[in-house]
Prior knowledge:
This protein has 334 residues and is α/β, with parallel strands linked by helices. The chain has helices spanning 45-58, 78-85, 109-118, 148-160, 176-189, 215-228, 235-249, 252-256, 295-298, 300-305, 311-318; strands at residues 16-19, 64-68, 96-102, 121-125, 165-171, 193-198, 233-234, 265-266, 272-273, 283-284, 288-289.
Amino acid sequence: MTAPSPRARLARTSSLVLLQPTPLCNLDCRYCYLPARGLARVMSDEVADAVAQTVGAWSEQHPVTVLWHGGEPLAAGVSRLTALLDRFPPGRGHPVRHAVQTNATLVDEAWCRLFRGRGIEVSVSVDGPDPGPGAGGGRVDRGGRDATGRTLRGVGLLKEHGIAFGAIAVVSDPTPRKAAELHRWFTELGCRVLGVNLVERKGLNTRAVHDDENVADFWAALAACGRADPRMRLRDVEHVRRYVRAELAGTAGQWAEQPVDPLPMVTWDGQVVPVGPDLAGFSSPRHGPFTIGDVREHGLAARLARAQETPWVAEAHGSNFIGIERGTKLRGGW
Length: 334
């Protein structure tokens, strides 16, 4: 087993906590890697209370954002998510903010009132223009129908209510032409920050992925579009620029040696995945479930304090499997 590198040690607090109010998703995207997205369960008050206690304590030291993630968070329903939000304090010294990553197909007037009333930051999962009938888009419902039109209807309601939004697009064909198309479309849509996730073979997604030879040209083209028209921020390009600036300033080494923000994910049933959402719901014959226990038993802070002692967490960081870097979180494009 690979020992954890000093540069990969986990911080004892986190500025971003991901919560899964439900594993259920009303879509069935062809590239989705998550299991149990047909499971209609919701987070209990007890799980939210256990997380809220730690979040409140952390807010004494720094701001904390609670990101409601999925499944599709809005599938939990307005009343249930409102009840969960009510369990969290406003913050002790620093604010506790809330954000939601949603496919926006379920957005209606009630959701818009909640977003506006609670100051919830919204990021929309949408991959670009409607591919049209028979075009084989990846973002589909359980009947195989493209969901882009329903997402845009939700985006329209957000705009009517004056709710700013970011977006995350999943890209399976990273080419310079695709980069230009996405930049133009999302800018015209009114998106304030765009994040791009390339399709990966992971979890339940075993489909063939993009040609790596095109990736560099895709990112170069996207960066060029951003320079030519800077109205929309580009999450991933900003990450690279931040790193390059640190390299040029000679501070990249110091930056890399800082403890890694763990980005913990707490699933609907209270299980803590200490290094982001990608491993939620998965297990392996060697390591068992990729969790570090139930948040209701010892609290989130205590669970994270011992996370690095967990063999699979240490191995993952030592091999750079997780790939988390400081500074990779950006408002509106999670």
